[in-house]
Design brief:
9 helices; 11 strands; binds 3-hydroxy-5-(hydroxymethyl)-2-methylisonicotinaldehyde; two-stranded antiparallel sheet; alpha/beta; nine-stranded mixed β-sheet; 275 residues
């Protein structure tokens, strides 16, 4: 098996089953060595919790990157998630240009919004900086809200093919592959639209009744892991979407589990699927 080294840059939400606490185990399950740069440490994620403790780690980023450069450590892929500031995005761009192996993908999940709204703490200035990062990316993994913000398009809940095509056109104009999540045209369905090399394809599956936090991070991590295991982008989308659905099914109905999905018992199915 081809053994890949992936760098992921996102926060540590100490509790909450999102960002690094899901990316690390999922990428490991996909068979990849995973290095991390933590963008910040929060007691819990900002969706649904109040009064969380927060500390940024921006100041650590250049020193970490400089040490790796000195050691000659390079990455097969760089995958970014939740970042805290324009300054951090600048450091991530430096890391991608200095530490990514030739031909390795920069995969950007512009984790900053959902359900028509920016996450707590983000503003229009941050969106502008995120546009810089997505412009440099080889693969972008936005949900509909993030895609609308990044392209200056009105957010719509009732989406149709023309709306999705417009978002895909705008996001892929620089040549990136785009995986737009939360796309379903029929009631009771959801999935992803993929734009690669000018062609759109869809992966559609059932939509469960309740939404769960952290599923965007789980999708992006499983997608990245599957892609680095040699799957094509549409194949990696299918792997990631099926995994997310299985995680949600393993969680809904558990009133005591309110902040994320119980993905750990489902990791075995991801490992088996990737052979
Ligand atoms: O799941 C995305 C995410 C990651 N990290 C933090 C968050 C969120 C979404 O709210 O608050 C800290």
């Amino acid at each position: 098996m081809d053994y890949k080294r992936i760098l992921t840059v996102q926060d540590i939400s100490c509790i909450g089953q999102c960002s690094l606490t899901v990316a690390l185990p999922i990428l490991s399950a996909c068979g990849a060595e995973t290095a991390v740069v933590a963008s910040g440490v929060l007691s819990a994620h900002t969706g649904g919790f109040r009064g969380y403790a927060f500390g940024g780690l921006t100041g650590e980023m250049p020193g970490i990157a400089a040490h790796w450069k000195k050691e000659g450590l390079f990455f097969d892929a760089v995958y970014t998630g939740y970042l805290g500031s324009a300054e951090q995005i600048g450091y991530v761009l430096d890391i991608a240009s200095g530490l990514l192996k030739k031909g390795g993908p920069l995969i950007v999940d512009p984790a900053m919004a959902d359900g028509g709204k920016l996450y707590a703490g983000f503003d229009g200035k941050f969106v502008e900086s995120m546009k810089q990062l997505t412009s440099a990316a080889d693969i972008i993994l936005p949900n509909i809200t993030e895609a609308a913000l990044l392209t200056g398009t009105e957010y719509r809940e009732d989406i149709d093919e023309a709306y999705v095509e417009h978002l895909l056109d705008a996001l892929s104009s620089g040549g990136a592959t785009v995986v737009l999540t939360g796309v379903g045209f029929e009631p009771g369905t959801t999935g992803a639209a993929i734009r690669e090399n000018g062609k759109t394809s869809y992966y559609t599956h059932e939509k469960t009744a309740g939404g769960c936090h952290g599923t965007g991070d789980i999708f992006a991590s499983a997608f990245t892991g599957a892609l680095m295991r040699g799957k094509t982008a549409p194949e990696a989308v299918a792997v990631a979407a099926d995994f997310v659905l299985a995680c949600i099914k393993n969680t809904v109905g558990d009133e005591n589990h309110r902040y994320g999905v119980k993905f750990e018992p489902v990791l075995g199915s991801l490992i088996s699927r990737l052979g």
